[in-house]
Design a protein that fits this description.
The chain contains eight helices and no strands. Helices cover 74% and strands 0% of the residues. The chain is mainly alpha-helical. The termini are far apart. The relative contact order is 0.09. Helix 2 (11-30) packs antiparallel against helix 3 (34-64), helix 3 (34-64) crosses helix 4 and helix 4 (77-89) runs antiparallel to helix 5.
């Protein structure tokens, strides 16, 4: 297991995963061009399958590095995120749910967050700041209200069409 752990945590393995994520994101972008899909649709579909299986191998290797304690893989929320994206990509979908599959594939691009520790740090900081953002929104609402009331009183006489009341 130490050799597997060393391999999974190696820069080469991590860079390989980054390259696969970038290729996957590029393929999803190419799918937005109907002409490209008409011409290369089968190839893109095959490449998407290969990429999906590469992500499965990555997850299995990351779990295998823990040996019998493979459930430790799920202690990291980013690993859970990766696992859910992989699982959603395997859901059987028919034509009406094809958009869900496309969305799941584009979420694979978000795996860059899991592959770059500094990006994880930034996302974690943003998530922790959400409660404070509510207070910022409340302060902005209060300021807009005060400025709106002031504008009605100051400009109603000059422009009654635009400043007739607070709602307008």
């Amino acid at each position: 297991m130490p050799q597997l752990q060393k391999f999974v945590n190696s820069k080469g393995f991590q860079w390989s995963v980054l390259v696969i994520i970038c290729i996957a994101a590029t393929l999803v972008g190419i799918e937005t061009y109907p002409a490209a899909m008409d011409r290369y649709g089968d190839t893109i579909t095959q490449l998407n399958r290969i990429i999906l299986w590469a992500f499965v191998v990555e997850a299995v290797l990351k779990m295998a590095q823990y040996g019998r304690g493979f459930l430790r893989y799920f202690k990291d929320p980013w690993n859970v995120f990766d696992f859910v994206i992989i699982g959603v990509c395997f859901l059987p979908v028919n034509a009406q749910y094809a958009a869900v599959l496309r969305l799941a594939r584009i979420f694979r691009a978000l795996r860059l967050v899991t592959a770059l520790p500094k990006l994880q740090l930034l996302v974690n900081a943003l998530l922790k700041s959400i409660p404070s953002m509510i207070y910022v929104g409340l302060l902005l609402t209060l300021l807009f209200y005060v400025y709106g009331v002031m504008a009605v009183f100051l400009f109603r006489a000059n422009d009654p069409v635009h400043f007739c009341d607070l709602q307008t």
